[in-house]
Write a structure and sequence with these properties.
The chain is about 80% helix and about 0% strand. It is mainly alpha-helical and about 425 residues long.
Length: about 425
């Protein structure tokens, strides 16, 4: 039986970018919708924090299993199924909110479980489809889907909420997601055996990773968990997402409550820092690959990128805690997110450097730790706002967390393979 046409790597990278973009559209649209939802249902800031953080409970619970599933069954099937699942629960969110707060939280948890497979599945595809010389830029393009989805999600959500009500947010994006899941299976094709097709020449570039149709080896968790570079990734994955989730979930409320902007403008101002990261991330990834091609060690590149990211985020958060007007706050947060985007060429690629054969389950593990800020950090922010009535403490705390990441990466980070 003749083989089906091999998808171009550019198509794969583009589809993974779009999947990540949709993942973040569906994740952040509630950050805008929660403002009128809280007014309608009479929620306190603490209750808003609970609603916003409930997504991350499901995300945390399914992250490690999602990494294992992607490593065992391949990223194509796992990501396609996940797309359909999280889009369905996005669509059901207004219905659940109308039933009860408990039903809403349960729906958000289930949606988080669906989205948990996105990054491990993409990492599994990149480990088996892309040569090492293309991985940094591919990961940086994938990570550009985070700001792209955030920009589109916040901007369009603000308009939808203002013009059509908060329910429309979830109906529109839920339907779009289900349609994209069908497109994913149509464009990212499988062989008759059910595995992603890849040419023999492309397989030859992936020495040490394993063929798609080979039985994956058992993950040596005991050995991996004793390696300091693994903990460097886990810590920095966590410190990076602390600021990420603060920006994702609370910025629309910050611009509305502190800077007194209208809902639509709050969504726009919250989106612009992510637009900055969307532009800078791929440029930095391309620079990092070229730096390596010119002879720089992966360790030097990864350490430079990640430490720059964490120090820049820390400085930006401290500055943001002192600004008083909306335009200055916007400028500071745009610069902060530009520094944040350096991390896509730092810790985010490092799973593929140190353990390419186990990159998907390892990403699932480190992203499990990185989901904790989505639960703890987002909820703490709501509590701090109720106690202090200001965002200053939340920005200072985020800066301290980022500094911890820089210190641990300098001490333990590496670009060398540590396990075969």
């Amino acid at each position: 039986m003749p083989r089906r046409a091999v998808p171009k790597r550019a198509i794969l990278v583009a589809m993974c970018f779009l999947a990540t973009m949709l993942c973040y559209i569906d994740r952040v649209n509630i950050s805008v919708a929660v403002i009128p939802m809280a007014e309608q249902f009479g929620w306190s800031q603490t209750t808003k924090g609970l609603v916003l953080s409930s997504f991350f409970i499901g995300y945390l619970l399914m992250m490690a299993p999602g990494g294992w599933l992607a490593g065992r069954f391949g990223g194509r099937i796992v990501l396609g199924a996940a797309l359909a699942a999280w889009s369905l629960f996005t669509l059901l969110t207004p219905l659940a909110a109308g039933v009860s707060l408990t039903a809403l939280i349960a729906t958000r948890i289930l949606m988080g479980m669906g989205e948990a497979a996105n990054f491990p599945a993409i990492i599994a595809l990149y480990a088996r489809w892309l040569p090492p010389t293309e991985r940094t830029r591919a990961v940086s393009i994938m990570f550009a889907g985070i700001p792209a989805g955030t920009v589109l999600g916040l901007a369009v959500s603000g308009l939808l909420v203002a013009d059509c009500g908060w329910h429309a947010n979830f109906y529109v994006f839920g339907v779009v997601g289900i349609g994209f899941a069908a497109l994913w299976f149509g464009l990212v094709r499988a062989s008759p055996a059910g595995h992603p097709t890849i040419s023999a020449a492309e397989r030859a570039m992936l020495a040490g990773v394993g063929a798609d149709d080979a039985e994956p080896p058992p993950v040596p968790w005991g050995k991996l968990l004793r390696l300091k570079p693994v903990w460097a990734i886990a810590i920095n994955h966590t410190t990076t997402t602390w600021s990420l989730y603060l920006m994702l979930t609370w910025m629309p409320s910050y611009f509305r409550d502190v800077q007194h902007l209208a809902i639509a403008k709050s969504g726009l101002f919250s989106a612009l820092p992510w637009l900055t990261a969307m532009v800078t991330g791929p440029l930095i990834g391309q620079f990092a690959d070229r730096w390596v091609a010119r002879g720089a060690s992966l360790t030097t590149v990864r350490k430079t990128m990640q430490v720059t990211s964490m120090l820049g985020v820390a400085g930006g958060m401290l500055t943001a805690s002192q600004v008083a007007d909306a335009n200055t706050a916007l400028l500071v947060l745009c610069v902060t997110m530009a520094f944040y985007s350096f991390s896509s060429s730092g810790f985010a690629c490092n799973h593929l450097d140190i353990a390419p054969r186990y990159a998907a389950p390892l990403y699932g593990l480190t992203n499990t730790f990185a989901t904790i800020p989505g639960i703890v950090g987002v909820a703490i922010t709501g509590w701090l706002l109720d106690v202090t009535h200001t965002y200053t403490a939340t920005f200072v705390l985020a800066a301290a967390v980022a500094l911890c990441g820089a210190i641990s990466w300098l001490a333990w980070g590496t670009g060398e393979r540590v396990i075969d």
